[in-house]
Every structure is written in structure tokens, then in C-alpha cells.
């Protein structure tokens, strides 16, 4: 019995899951630093409370309030444009995948 998997059945973990030129210890170290960096960013954005303008909030709340005050009424239109662009981009990528499947 062979354990061969063609590329369509392999899990997608990045552009290339195994880099033959990088030692395994280096790959593990790079993955660990990436994990720690993004975990710290998530904790800072969503979990750590602090006082800002007399109220207790999180960093994401401060960023949101700052963006809303800077852009004013345009926030709704910018959000709708981003959602629409994302939809069409994803839909076009799915149609390309369907052609090559």
C-alpha cells in the first residue's frame, strides 16, 4: 500500500509546506515565532483592557473609534466596497479553480 497523495489532497498550510533547503529546526523555530507574534497581537487587540478617554476598553475599540472619527460617514461606504470587492475576488478565484479541476 502506498501513502502517495497528489497535490489536490494535501492540506494547505502555506505556499509550500516543506522547504527542502531549510533545516527542520529552522522551520520549527520560524513557525514558533510566527505563532507567538500573532498570538501576542491577538491578545493585545482583543483581551487586554485599559483606560482610554475615561472608559475601560480594548485596543480594537480604540482603533475603531479613531477610524470612525477620522472617516466620518464614509465608513459605511468603505465597508460595503471592501465586502463587494472581496465577494467578486473570491467568486472569480472559485471560477478559475473550477476550470482547472
Structure, described:
This protein is mainly alpha-helical and 101 residues long. Helices cover 62% and strands 6% of the residues. It has a two-stranded antiparallel sheet. β1 and β2 (55-57) form a beta hairpin.
Quick gist of this model?
This protein has 101 residues and is mostly helical.
Question: Descriptors for this entry?
Answer:
101 residues; mainly alpha; two-stranded antiparallel ribbon; 3 helices
Task: Give the helix/strand layout.
Layout: H1 24-46, E1 50-52, E2 55-57, H2 59-71, H3 74-100
Antiparallel strand pairs: 1-2
What is the general shape?
Answer: flat
Unreliable spans are: none
The number of helical segments is 3
Mean of the pLDDT scores? 82
Helical percent range?
Answer: 55-70%
Major beta sheet, specifics?
2 strands, antiparallel
Structural class: mainly alpha
Beta-strand segment tally: 2
- Mind telling me the C-alpha Rg? 21 Å
Distance N terminus to C terminus? 26 Å
The sequence of SSEs as H and E is HEEHH
Strand order of the largest sheet: 1-2
Strand content: 5-15%
